[in-house]
């Protein structure tokens, strides 16, 4: 499946979808600004049955092809006969096996972060702009799932399989939803089903399904607040090589100021949506407040 | 302020408030079972203005009297001229400076966890029962704040100052709320105001305000699902010495199966509640899914 | 191969070989005191050809049956185009796959460390007595290798195979060496050869070859300074069950004050000794100065 | 004190002192090749009294101006009533407060490591060339201390104070030693005395005494194997700004293939040398075998 756009065209798209300055020159929250109190209150009204679903994978401690740097988990007290147990864990949050929220400082385009902040705002001791703690008050909004394997009547999308704007619109139509301003858009590619059926693989070498760069204008028009995926949103490997390694990451994080949720587990969510016949819900997420951090592991919860 | 009960009486209370077997002999979720879908749906209806407040402290990386084991945060890529930034952090979640959710396996009473599971279910590789991932689907319910310094017309409670059941009821009356089945009860002692005014101290040596053991039957009658505090819920040091080090921890975690949120920051919440004249709200929290873990750092979000 | 001694007899041995008080009641260095400047100067004279051999395994970062908690190694800068590379590692030093020096505070007997210090000298923040930094000035002495598989004309000792005092003496005779006061005694069981030929195993479940408890008086008489092994010196599982889990660990660390090197790799050393026909050499080791620590990863170097 | 050379001249020096190809095009050990077995055997003959001195600082766990990323040390078992204690530590080895050995892959010049290997040999998972484990067999050689504050009759060198070739030669003359092929050269600037007298400072902002770039040809002529310092060998900040940030680091690591010991503690060594009237000794060091690593914390031991 060939890319729709040339590298030059993608660069042009980056310019067009830029939200730099949209919320003032000092803004570091980007498209989170689309989530107004009214949006949240409306989203809360979607919580009708009170059913809940986690969108996160467990924090795996096992080395694997897709988890080269597993979480290190150790007991500090191991219980009996002591009266308590304590533990410790260490995580490189951006790992391919961890459900995490990317901060807007995570990726640069031409040496710039969102809103034109220089990448030199990041040093050995962390990010002084656009760090993950800009989301410290949490992300509460409407969530919408677009289940692409269901649309395509397959178990999962193949590695390197690209999703185009017409797929997003077809999914909307099939599901009876419309992605709107301030939404958290959750895109399912069926990654974990593929792993169960075909075994683990190294996404850095073999790639993963995801959005073609031509979806960026669509995401921009819909004014989403956050983009999430059971993959990493980008189709990989990049059709543009090292010139534009992750076009969706660049188009969202630095250009539009849209935070990304990578490596979610959307299978239980998809099952619930299918069962209830409803693809919108109350989305809740409280990223850890790691000042100067570039990401946080998260466990987003959907409420129906 | 003397304890209301003798050590023997507290032990008797432990027996009376036990929820062992209440949800079946295999249950590991304890009082989270009080939160029904109906409870969640009703809680969501409290989200009316869409205003949001975080209940967490930042994850501090600085050594301090009350943070002897700070979070270790390191950059894996520090940005420019690389096209991305990555980081890593390590946390001993139970630290006194970290807002975290205690798993039911965290504390034992007479060698037992909640529901009678043996403390030997915990070994060097973690907890095989009652680990933090029993809360993997999140905690969505009604939250209620009881602001004790406001009730007592003080800036903060003093170290070692105990809170009694009549204080809880007086706070309910003053605030116009009633703690009910399935609620997340948040108790404010004003710890962070005290720190700002008087400087940091070591709670292990100098103590902290919190609940007297006589509050346990009250918590049990109200059938709360989760108990949280800007301290650690227990008044300390324990009036019972090493015989019963943390009576509230024991009464809640192993006996009632009530998860605890320790070291929250409830000051912004208190300000919002006071401003809106409303002490109930939608409470949302997604603990990290650390299988076999004894706790998770959390950032609970209140929605008004 | 049955144990030579009953549990009661082993406990009697512990009493007899105790070095408590031998170097004063405040001493924390134990048998390191056997290494005098004269001993070191004599050991240095063994360095004649200048050939060198490492006695350590690499610090493995891979999860394995015998490495459940691998070293966590991460790049902090990954080089190009940055002008430097930096990294980070984290280690639970006592891991079965790591060559490390046990501090005298690592194991207790009846609640006591070496020289009668209470195990309560160890708290959540470390060891206030007998920590690894008592060896901060390094261990420089004569090293002696006893190669038991070579003596027995086998590739490796079997799991659970015990070594007795007569084996030690037969090895001395075969090799033409005599273990003496202040020596670092290195005992080879052929563990890594077994792993190469038969694959990895979990020593905690399946055991490992090592010294029978009846060797303790022999070690005491010879006044060794440090005991090392490619296993953990103890035969395992213990013939005494949980009553005396690791008799050699107890006899050496708390009773005799003899530091232990666990999980060395003695295969290159054995090859060099065999080739040169010489089983004594200059032994050098500089443990990391981790104050309050219970161990240090080490890379001891033998000089011929 | 002005630099002796222009930036252009320093770059010319880099070319002239290059050891690329000197030990074959595949060599990764660099100047360690100067240490022959004969050199080691001769060095061992310097161990005459058997007195020993550590050259390392303790691994500090406290945040400080000169230790922004302290060692994280945690107890995994804290002893009583358990029969053992275990711990864990984590270290970013290159920290300014840690005595460590820099691997030859640590610094690049114009995108190249020692022997012309590309800096792209380093990736997120470590260094595939010139990693710290090239020194896995240890460094055993003659050590020589040049004590510059003693030469200059001061307690310590001032921040930004440069050392020139004539200082090195004057120190040699005053001490009666001559730095020769295969030596480990230890340069004392008195850093820790300054800290005791004047308090801690941030070397990255305020600088530190060290070698002027004009010393590089001298180091090259003397064919040293390893360069060590109680600072970081380089005078800082660099007189050449970002054009040549650490001329001594570049001249030694990538150009000459000389490993560096940073942040040693040479005060006890200086005291011993002065007392014995002898500035040469047996130097021993066993770096941890961290494959693909860029450094190792070390505790080098001098034997007199």
How would you portray this structure in words?
Chain A has 304 residues and is an alpha/beta fold. Helix content of chain A is 24%, strand content 20%. The first copy, chain A, contains 9 helices and 15 strands. In chain A, the strands form 4 sheets. A 9-stranded mixed β-sheet of chain A has the order 1-15-13-7-9-11-12-4-14, sandwiched between helices. In chain A, strands 2-3 form a two-stranded antiparallel ribbon. A two-stranded antiparallel ribbon of chain A has the order 5-6. In chain A, β11 (226-229), α8 (247-256) and β12 form a beta-alpha-beta unit. In chain A, α1 (7-17) packs parallel to α8. The longest helix of chain A is centred in the first third of the chain and has 11 residues, at 7-17. Chain A is globular. The model of chain A has no long low-confidence stretch (mean pLDDT 95). Chains in contact: A-B, A-C, A-D, B-C, B-D, C-D. Chains B and D meet through β2 of B and β2 of D.
Features:
homotetramer, 304 residues, 24% helix
**How much is the average pLDDT of chain A?**
95
- What share of the residues of chain A does DSSP label as strand, in percent? 15-25%
Could you describe the largest sheet of chain A, including whether it forms a barrel?
9 strands, mixed
Task: Note the quaternary state here.
Answer: homotetramer
Biggest interface goes to: A-B, 83 and 83 residues
Taking all Cα atoms into account, the compactness measure Rg of chain A is 19 Å
Query: Which word captures the global form of chain A?
Result: globular
Helix content estimate of chain A: 10-25%
Order of helices and strands of chain A: HHEEEEEEEHEHEHHEHEHEHEEE
Helical stretch tally of chain A = 9
The end-to-end distance of chain A, rounded to whole angstroms, is 36 Å
Tally of extended strands of chain A?
15
Trace the largest sheet of chain A across and list its strands: 1-15-13-7-9-11-12-4-14
Low-confidence stretches of chain A: none
Structural class estimated from helices and strands of chain A: alpha/beta
């Amino acid at each position: 499946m060939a890319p729709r756009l040339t590298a030059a065209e993608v660069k042009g798209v980056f310019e067009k979808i830029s939200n730099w300055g949209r919320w003032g020159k000092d803004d570091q929250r980007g498209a989170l600004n689309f989530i107004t109190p009214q949006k949240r209150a409306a989203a809360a009204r979607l919580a009708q049955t009170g059913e809940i679903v986690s969108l996160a994978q467990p924090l795996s401690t096992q080395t694997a092809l897709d988890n080269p740097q597993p979480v290190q988990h150790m007991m500090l007290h191991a219980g009996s006969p002591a009266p308590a147990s304590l533990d410790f864990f260490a995580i490189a949050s951006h790992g391919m096996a961890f459900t995490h929220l990317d901060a807007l400082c995570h990726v640069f385009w031409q040496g710039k972060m969102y809103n034109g902040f220089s990448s030199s705002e990041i040093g050995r001791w962390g990010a002084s702009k656009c760090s993950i703690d800009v989301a410290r008050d949490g992300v509460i909004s409407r969530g919408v799932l677009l289940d692409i394997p269901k649309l395509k009547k397959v178990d999962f999308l193949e590695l390197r399989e690209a999703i185009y704007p017409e797929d997003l619109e077809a999914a909307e139509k099939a599901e009876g939803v419309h992605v709107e301003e301030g939404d958290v858009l959750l895109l399912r590619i069926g990654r974990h089903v593929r792993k169960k059926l075909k075994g683990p693989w190294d996404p850095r070498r073999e790639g993963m399904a995801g959005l073609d760069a031509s979806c960026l204008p669509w995401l921009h028009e819909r004014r989403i607040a956050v983009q999430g995926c059971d993959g990493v949103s980008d189709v990989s490997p990049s059709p543009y090589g090292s010139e534009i390694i992750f076009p969706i990451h660049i188009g969202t994080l630095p250009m539009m100021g849209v935070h990304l949720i990578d490596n979610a587990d959307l299978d239980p969510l998809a099952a619930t949506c299918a069962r209830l016949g409803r693809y919108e819900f109350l989305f809740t997420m409280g990223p850890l407040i790691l000042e100067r951090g570039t990401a946080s592991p998260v466990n987003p919860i959907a409420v129906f």
